[in-house]
Design a protein that fits this description.
The chain is α+β, with helices and mostly antiparallel strands. The protein has 2 domains: 56 residues; 86 residues, no CATH class. It has 3 helices and 5 strands; from the N terminus they run H-H-E-E-E-E-H-E. The strands form 2 sheets. It has a 3-stranded mixed β-sheet with strand order 1-2-5, covered by helices on one side. It is rod-shaped and about 145 Å long. The protein starts with a helix and ends with a strand. This is Stage III sporulation protein AF. Pfam families: Spore_III_AF. It comes from Clostridium gasigenes.
Length: 196
């Protein structure tokens, strides 16, 4: 409302000033130039509120866009932070598994390992706590033929079989090694045989 009253006041003042200048101006060839300049002044006075409306409107639109962008970026940062934390955790777990595989393969030559480590990760403090470790073992060495004993007295054949403990060749050594490098108890380590 103030802008309209200011516009009307400016317009009326300009018209009064123009009328006074026309009355004072001499009646010669300069009068048409004076009228031209006064007309330009009147047009500029009339266009000023329209230009200011567009410029303020543009500023208002720009301010709203900036406010929206800030809120969007803020929301996006929160989502990105969660996504980045999840990506960091996944990368950490993948690297931990790869490093475990590499250490096992260096320690136990001729075997391939596939680790699956379950752990809780605190990205802020850069700490982790290993809950359980599953290790798959592929043994490329040639297996010895197992000894077959036939007990003829009770007419039953006993074939030397592997017990659960001996299912993977060197399982005990692998568990001991993992206890040392991962600081985890043997009961939380599961070792299984993988097919080639």
């Amino acid at each position: 409302m103030e802008s309209i009253s200011a516009f009307i006041t400016t317009l009326v003042t300009t018209i009064i000033l123009m009328t006074a200048v026309e009355l004072i101006a001499p009646d010669n060839s300069i009068k048409k130039y004076i009228n031209f300049v006064l007309g330009l002044i009147l047009i500029s006075v009339m266009l000023t509120p329209i230009v200011s409306l567009f410029s303020k409107g543009e500023t208002k639109v720009i301010n709203e866009i900036n406010r929206y962008e800030k809120e969007f970026v803020k929301m996006d940062k929160n989502e990105d932070k969660g996504r980045v934390d999840r990506n960091r955790e996944e990368s950490f777990k993948n690297n931990l598994n790869k490093n475990c595989n590499k250490l096992l393969e260096e320690e136990f030559k001729g075997r391939e390992f596939e680790s699956d480590i379950s752990c809780n990760i605190d990205i802020k403090n850069m700490t982790y706590d290993i809950d359980k470790v599953k290790i798959g073992v592929k043994d490329d060495s040639i297996k010895k033929i197992q000894k077959i004993e036939i007990n003829r007295s009770d007419s039953s054949a006993v074939i030397g079989s592997q017990t659960k403990e001996e299912e993977v060749n060197g399982e005990t050594e692998i568990k001991i090694y993992l206890e040392q490098i991962l600081n985890i108890k043997a009961k939380n380590i599961e070792i299984y045989k993988q097919e080639k």
